[in-house]
Structure formats: structure tokens, C-alpha cells
Specification:
Low-confidence stretches: 1-59
Number of helices: 17
Order of helices and strands: HHEHEHEHEEEEHHEHHHHEHEEHHHEHH
Number of strands: 12
CATH superfamily of the largest domain: Periplasmic binding protein-like II
Radius of gyration: 21 Å
Mean pLDDT: 86
Shape: globular
Structural class: alpha/beta
Largest sheet: 6 strands, mixed
Number of domains: 2
Strand content: 5-15%
CATH architecture of the largest domain: 3-Layer(aba) Sandwich
């Protein structure tokens, strides 16, 4: 099985066939929700219990459990819209939502798997797809709904379907602050550093990030914009080489990127209280003008356009090495191999991606996502989203190292480990020691799989 990589050609196809015609967290990372409250837990437990006891809800009605997550953009309403529409057209099938909570959905689903309560349909399935026997093979008629370039195989089988493309980190900025300080959008790394220095020298805070409750929000935005792009422009087969023991995280490029980031933190370029903020709080503080810039994904553009907020612009973060490389991830859904109603489960997937354009369109538009279907589903885009895509229209596009699907996927738990390491570096930890720990943990987790 070959390493999956979105190439410049794939981006061009996406731009022409989907973006211009309306063509893709996180793990939307704007896909993180940390509200693990009692109501969510109760809903999860109820759905899990029902899975084992009510495969037939009433008469011949089949019951499916649908494992999802929710964010500020991908709300309960988005999922309920899918469920209600499907049940209306298929009264013999009931769908019950199972809500994942916390930062690490992979760990959440694995806990449900070990307890025998794994949902019938799971979003972000790529995080578990490397485990043998977890997901059912996708029927050919369902595969045929999708752009072949987005399909991913495991041991020669297609066991997941691509739900969307999501473009990752660019830098949003406060137009008024830039105007006040006579700043222009930077196009090189040195220009970006000069913008940060100018803002700091003016007594303002250059950059915002999050920390508490959303550990990804501290370092992932910068790392994806600078680390993934630098490594993959220099080592295109980094995932493969890392998996086969021919490459290490501890290399000159990784250390250089993280050292430059720590230098920015030490220079006071980040909001001093960032570590006390969740992602949502950080985003709100940024919009209040607490900081002039915030590195974030396309979901921020969708949110600003949804609010009709014209106070902010966006530019592609200039790469350290000068390459025009950006990151876009595909996310995947899977049907559990243990699902007792696989035909019904794939019927639900066909409803979302093939039978009802409006349902898929609402899903995509909510979070600045882009279609993976063979016949691209399009939607009207606002000015910030349009600018976000225009910024990278001629750039090479790669998939984030830590979430790449397929046989060279990073082992379960590595992403959380790196997120904690980013926070250590943000708080003054030794960069070299942290990077060395990545290799140790990667091998430990890989051996444990």
C-alpha cells in the first residue's frame, strides 16, 4: 500500500472541480470539543446500551448507533439534520447519536471498542483503521460515490469513506491593527517575523493561541504550518521512512522549526495568558482584539463568514524554508465490522454522500470543509473563505504527518503525546530533549500496536 499524499494535481482538481465550483479539522482541529459534561456522558452510555439490546427498535426497525463529535461549528444540529432526514426517508431504520467527548476521540472510540460498545458508524475512522478487523469493507457502489484520489486502502481493502477535505493553518489578522501600524500581509518568513516585532514594539500582542482543555491549540497550529510543511518538502516520504526506521523525528529540520517557535514565545509574541484559555476562548479573545493574529484552520474562515465579520483578513503563513507547501487533511468514516445491520449503515452513508446534496452541503459549509465526492458538492463561500483558498491556489498540498491514513499512519496516542510536548516547549522545555522523546514514544507506541 502506497503512502497517500494530496499532490499539486489533486489540489488543482479540487480547486477547479470543487472550490471554484465550491470544492478540506482534525482533526478539523476546529474539530475539538472538550465539554465532557454529564449530559454528554449519559447520552453516550444510553446509546451504547441500546446498541446491544435494540438492534430492532420496533417491529422490523433496525437501530444504528452513530459515533460523532461536536464543535462550535459542527453542532448537534448538523448531525440531527442528517439523522432526521434519513429516518424520514427510511422509517424502518433508527439512528442514535453517540457523542465523543474530550480532546482525543481516538482514545474515546478505543475505550468503547474495548467495552463492546463501539458505534456502528464512526467519524474520524482513519484513527482506528490500521487495527485489524475494526471496519467493514466498503461496497463498490459506495466507493463509486467518491473521488478516487481520496479513497484509502488498508491491506488492499477500502474500509473507510472520505468525508471531507479540510485545509489547515493560515494566519488570521485584525485589519484595524494592521492598518494602524501600516502593516502588509507578509510573504516571507523574515517579513512575518518583522510583522510580529512591529506589533510587539507598538505595545500590542502579536499572536493568540489556546491551552487549557484543548492542548492541541497551543502548538499544533504553528507546527502544522511550519513543521509539517518543512519536513514534507524536504522528506516527501517522511511517514514511510519513519515507520520503517529510516528516519527520525529528531532531525535538524524538526529542531530548527521548534527552536524558532520557542524563540517567538520567548520574545513575547504570544499572548501571556494563552495557556489559561480553551481554543474557543482564545478565538473569542482574538476577535476582541486581544491579539493581532491567530494561526488557525479553515473553520475559522467559515465562522467569520457565517458571522459576516469583515474585520479580519487571512494570509498563508510564510514557510521557514520558503517552499509553497500547505496542509490539507481528509477525514474518514467507517462502518464497524460488528455492526448487525451493515446494509442499513451503508444506506445511511449513501444518503449523506449520494442521495441528499443539501445534507452534505450543510455539513461542509458549517466548518469550511470541501467535498470528496466524485460529483463535488458546492456551496457559496464568503470573502474570508474565498481568500483562504486563493492564498494557496498555486501551492503544493500535503497531508498532515500525524494524521496520514494508511499503513504508514502514526501509532495511536502519538498525537496527544506531541501536543503535550508542544506545551512543554511553549513553557520553556528543552527542544532537543523533547524531540528525542518523540522518537522514544513513537517506537514504544508502535511496538504496542
Amino acid at each position: 500500500m502506497k503512502k497517500r499524499k494530496l499532490t499539486a494535481l489533486a489540489l488543482t482538481v479540487c480547486m477547479v472541480g470543487g472550490m471554484v465550483a465550491g470544492c478540506g479539522s482534525t482533526d478539523a482541529k476546529g474539530t475539538t470539543d472538550t465539554a465532557a459534561d454529564t449530559k454528554d456522558t449519559a447520552a453516550t452510555e444510553t446509546a451504547a446500551e441500546d446498541k446491544d439490546t435494540t438492534d430492532k427498535a420496533s417491529g422490523d426497525a433496525a437501530t444504528l448507533t452513530f459515533g460523532v463529535f461536536e464543535t462550535d461549528n459542527i453542532t448537534a444540529e448538523i448531525w440531527q439534520n442528517m439523522i432526521d432526514g434519513f429516518e424520514k426517508e427510511n422509517p424502518d431504520i433508527k439512528v442514535e447519536k453517540v457523542l465523543a467527548t474530550g480532546d482525543d476521540r481516538q482514545a474515546f472510540w478505543k475505550t468503547m471498542l474495548s467495552s463492546g460498545s463501539f458505534p456502528d458508524i464512526v467519524v474520524e475512522a482513519q484513527k482506528l483503521a490500521t487495527m485489524d478487523g475494526i471496519f467493514a469493507e466498503v461496497p463498490q457502489d459506495i466507493q463509486d460515490l467518491f473521488d478516487p484520489a481520496t479513497l484509502c486502502q488498508y491491506d488492499g481493502k477500502c474500509i473507510t469513506v472520505p468525508s471531507f477535505r479540510q485545509y489547515k493553518m493560515q494566519c488570521y489578522y485584525n485589519k484595524e491593527i494592521f492598518k494602524e501600524l501600516n502593516l502588509e500581509e507578509p510573504t516571507t518568513w523574515d517579513e512575518f517575523q518583522n510583522v510580529c516585532k512591529t506589533i510587539k514594539d507598538a505595545g500590542k500582542t502579536p499572536l493568540m493561541c489556546g491551552g487549557t482543555g484543548d492542548i492541541w491549540a497551543t502548538g499544533e497550529p504553528f507546527w502544522i504550518a511550519e513543521g509539517d510543511t518543512s519536513l514534507l518538502s524536504k522528506y516527501p516520504d517522511f511517514n514511510k521512512d519513519l515507520s520503517e526506521g529510516n528516519q527520525k523525528w529528531n532531525n535538524e529540520t524538526t529542531v530548527d522549526v521548534l527552536t524558532k517557535w520557542q524563540d517567538m514565545v520567548n520574545a513575547g509574541y504570544y499572548y501571556e495568558g494563552a495557556m489559561s484559555l480553551s481554543y474557543s476562548q482564545a478565538a473569542e479573545e482574538f476577535k476582541k482584539g486581544t491579539a493581532a493574529m491567530m494561526i488557525d484552520g479553515s473553520w475559522q474562515a467559515a465562522g467569520l463568514d457565517g458571522e459576516k465579520n469583515e474585520d479580519f483578513g487571512v494570509f498563508a503563513v510564510p514557510t521557514i524554508d520558503g517552499s509553497k507547501t500547505t496542509v490539507a487533511d481528509c477525514s474518514y468514516w467507517g462502518v464497524s465490522e460488528t455492526c448487525k445491520n451493515k446494509d442499513a449503515a451503508f444506506k445511511f452513508i449513501k444518503y449523506v454522500y449520494g442521495d441528499n446534496t443539501d445534507v452534505y452541503k450543510a455539513y461542509l459549509q458549517s466548518d469550511g470543509l470541501y467535498s470528496t465526492t466524485k460529483e463535488p458538492v458546492t456551496y457559496e463561500q464568503g470573502p474570508v473563505t474565498t481568500k483562504f483558498i486563493d492564498n494557496i491556489k498555486d501551492w503544493d498540498t500535503v497531508q498532515e504527518i500525524i494524521v496520514l491514513p494508511g499503513e504508514y499512519a502514526a501509532p495511536s496516542g502519538m498525537q496527544s503525546f506531541m501536543d503535550k510536548s508542544f506545551q512543554n516547549i511553549f513553557n520553556g522545555g528543552d527542544v532537543q530533549s523533547e524531540v528525542e522523546s518523540w522518537d522514544t514514544e513513537y517506537q514504544r507506541l508502535k511496538d504496542a500496536e
